[in-house]
Specification:
Structural class of chain B: alpha+beta
Order of helices and strands of chain B: HEEHEEEEEHEEEHE
Strand content of chain A: 25-35%
Radius of gyration of chain A: 38 Å
Number of strands of chain B: 11
Shape of chain B: globular
Oligomer: heterodimer
Structural class of chain A: alpha+beta
Distance between the termini of chain B: 30 Å
Amino acid sequence: MSGYRLREGGVVDRTQPIRFRWDGKAYTGLAGDTLGSALLANGIGPVARSFKYHRPRGVMTAGPEETGALVTIGKGARREPNAKAPAVELFEGLEAFGQNAWPSVRFDLGQVNDLLGSFFTAGFYYKTFFGITGKGTWEWMQFEKLIRRAAGMGRAADPADMAKDHDAYDVIHDFCDVAVIGGGPAGLAAATEAAAAGLDVVLIEQDFALGGRAIGRDEIIEGQPADAWIAAQEAGLASARVLRRATAFGLYDTNVLGIYERITEHEGDPDPALPRAAIRILRPARVILATGAIERPIAFGNNDRPGVMLAGAMERYASRWGVGPGSRAFIATAHDGGHADATVLARAGVEVTVMDARPDGSEAAEMSRAAGVEVLEGYLPVDAEGAQAVSRLMIGRAREATGAGGIAVASAERDRRADCVGTSAGWSPAIHLVAHRGVKPVWNGDLGCFLAGEPPAGLALAGSASAHWSTEACVLDGRAAGAEAVAALRGSAAPQRPERVAPLGAPMALHEVKMRSRKLKSFLDPQHDVTTADVRQAAQEGYRSVEHMKRYTTLGMATDQGKTGNIGGLALLADALGQSIPETGITTFRPPYTPVPIAALAGRARGAHWQAIRRTPMHARHEAAGAPFTDAGAWKRAWYYPGPGEGIDEAYVREAAMVRETCGIVDVSTLGKIDVQGPDAAEFLNRVYVNGFAKLPVGKCRYGVMLRDDGIVLDDGVSWRLAEDRFLMTCTTAEAAHVMVWLEELLAWRWPELRVTVASVSDQWAGTAVAGPRSRAVLERVLTGGDVSDGALPFMGVTGAHLAVAGGVVPVLIARISFSGERAYEVYAPAGWGALAWDALAEAAAAEGGAPYGLEALGALRIEKGHVTAAELDGRTTLADAGLGRMASTKKPFLGAAMMQRPHLQAEGRAELVHVIPVEDGVRFSGGALLCDPDVSMGGNDGHGVGWITGVTESPVFGGWLGIGFVAGGASAWQGREILVEEPVAGRSCRAQVLSAHRYDPKGERMHA
Amino acid sequence: MPEAVAISEVMTAAAGGEGAPALTSPLPAALAAPALLRGMEAAQVTLSEAPMAALWQVTAWPEALAAAGTAAAASVGVGTAPGPGQALTAGLGAVLRTEPLRFWVVVEDGPVRSPEPGEAGTVLDLTQARWRVRLSGPGRVALMARLGPLDWRAQAFPVGRVASTEIGHVGVTVQAEPEAFALFLPRSFAEALAGLILETGQSLGIARGEGVAGRALAGDRLAPAHKP
């Protein structure tokens, strides 16, 4: 590359060198540089290889619209591919690398693809779906391997590295009166105007410096030199929040802005306490888009060679960063702006030739000549020559008049020495954000660009985003936009926005230079290797819609979002289709405007904070006992309490057997608990549950099942009648939130006449179940008040009690309920004393030969007993399926009563709850296994089998492996027959017996004892 | 034979009573604040525990809203019921309008007396269902902006404002107090949310202030000092 640091000029600190590494080699830049300017200043090139063809690429722009210099920055966990070098702020210690090349971007074996370019034209990927011989899928599968290997640019950080050392990101919710997007002249003017009026203003600028294209520019703004004017505006923003290094990547409904804010990305040694970046969700009352404009390139032969760039970018590198893009420059332009850029370069000592495609002399051309610039009017760039970078440029005159489509036909005339070429077909307002709001762009033929349509309420565009091209006009328009926002928020009269000032010389439409005599490889979208020929091919193959052409060719897709090549592409499509640009339309701009890391969108919601962990009041006690935890929704539940040398199997079997023999305690705090109060509370439950609750006496509880409207079981649980007008409803851990919402909906919409209030008290109560033959003795050891004798507290009775704990006495509610099938009690203590109550009960249980047991043993006990959980009540199960059909009252209406009578739900042979045991000793199967009729293959049953397993356990009671699940017809239909338990994924199968699920203490004598 | 204990006694005793032990904090003492930023001498935000003597929820029947509100307010010595999203404070505590038909009565110190809305609504003890923490310090608005999606600026959420929002996908009630935000965390989520608050506060500089668990012995969640 031919770039170098100019002897003077630029807004960089020449006293502050910044050391960085490129492809492992040390270089030096200056404070104020970007990686792009530093690479240019050091003459480094090429810096990238293209996507498909692996052609060498250099820096092509001076901002996030970059399409050439896509590089990898950082190492290890901080490695980030596809960074756009001109948008990367240079910092001490920055390490950057070329990508998509082997062995290096200077010499890349992948460049062989360029020779095979005719195979990689538009849509080649889709054509591989059909294959060469038409064998379709099989051939695609072969191509797929190659394509997948070749696809992508750069490599993301290794997940193993990120797991060890990942960056933090914040998500910030913010509000303000006025948000101004863009810190260029228009944005600064708008923001200072609004801030001066006392409004809460947020200014968002993607660059690390304010001023936009005015930075370093030799011009006077409002009577001040540009840099002094910028400093004055910054001073005027003391009351505003100025977000530098922040990109507004999306504008959403009601003008909500998504902003990606780089916090430490630009630091070599960031404070580990700070996040790398943040997503700021800003909700302003008014938005002013001063997002500027993006220069359009001109497509000509090999216009992707390193050294070819946008003319405005060449000016920026000279003015802002004091970098000469080359020593022999050509600028091809079709409007006055190219002359201004040429003049800047000439003043910096660069030998410059301007090729103005317009045939007639203009005032701008005379100004260029006066500055020592060679001006060739009516000339065009035809072909850039050179291997690693442009070294010569073939130029020529237009042989045919350039039409509205902007396609010039030229013949090669002269071959000139050149080490950098700038092109400028004009400027397109950056209207991406307003387009995110669904505002359709409108073509303006006079300006040769799309403008925003009528913006929605509260949104305004200012400056070059609204096609004001001079700095003076931008500042005027910005001030008016700021004043307009003030007037809107203060309710005063809005000022008049200034009219657009026409440029001195009329611009000419120019998007492509082509030759009749030979084909040129001319790029519209270098980032995706999309050429002008690709667009024509798409049109020829029937892709007439601009949206289809975009997807077929990949023009302007992904991170580019049509920033530079979009207009040229659709102009060529319009030409190929013989229609106008407005008839052809424009593709839809979608967020994000520039890439946003997925990790930033996640913010703090990762790792332990991905889902807030819910802990019971006794959690620390379980931890201290060495219990592993298992997840039950957000809850952590103690799984088992391993004894010395025990694994889970030994531990839970021991715990389950202990409960059957003596006693155990288990943490049941996770059960959903709902306070139901009011004079109609009993009537409410009577309607919700299938069984009756109206006559349940105070001091009693009852098991209830509730159905959905469609007759399927929603949930089950026990409701305790605490007073005439008050119940404590318990529901399953899994369905607690669902049931709560369901009850609120019923009261709000269906039965607003009922005087009932419901509230979750799941966090108010800590629940401990005490189960086993010695459970009453356990309670008697610790109660200082309350009678738990069988006479005072029979099965399904409820009472209050006082429990002696360390440091005092705790009031508790006790219900005699059993999930295990043994005599059992649930003891509810206020949550803040739950751990103390647990301690006391654990000590008492130990004295009776018991101990805590975990969720696995709880499951074993309930499977043996044949009790259902959410595993069985899975949204498909009817009351009868669960063996609870007789619970449904015939004397009162209840929710789901009508729909449960549907023929399908009453059909003979539905799957019913059963026990399943393997025929052979030592054989096991898993939850989720399918049950199949051995006389009918799975295929004969449409692969559905005749049932399924919902839970399994080693059963101390029955001595062996035990499953619970559902099978067609229930146990009676399988009497005397074996069934197959199939686990096709695991490749296992075994024979089993089907038995009643209610074999353990079927009369409930142990429970009622 | 032990003396029978009425269920109604238990339902009102959760907010504290004679012989009740000290409340335990759901926050482990080991839950430490992260290091301050380089060069930062003082934290911008402090997370403190602020246990309540009692928290009652009063839900009004629609036609009796005024009477229920008055009863709720009177129980802590507040003269009138607050409007929606508002809190009124008096010597004994505060009354918060958390929902259109719902009030929270926060008792800061004894005597703890249940609100008595009578026929106007229902009362529910939530004292041990929520664990209140406070965020204080000049960075509290910035921290709240990183936790929840509401406008926490003083002009939009002034002292006396109450809102329900989500923090870490968990429903949390927030009250703006002088120089602080009070956060009523669901007790079962308190440790997780406090961890999230401390981690998020790192970029602003956060400290863990005095509180129940903050004064407890390391590794012990018992709070020896607080007694409702």
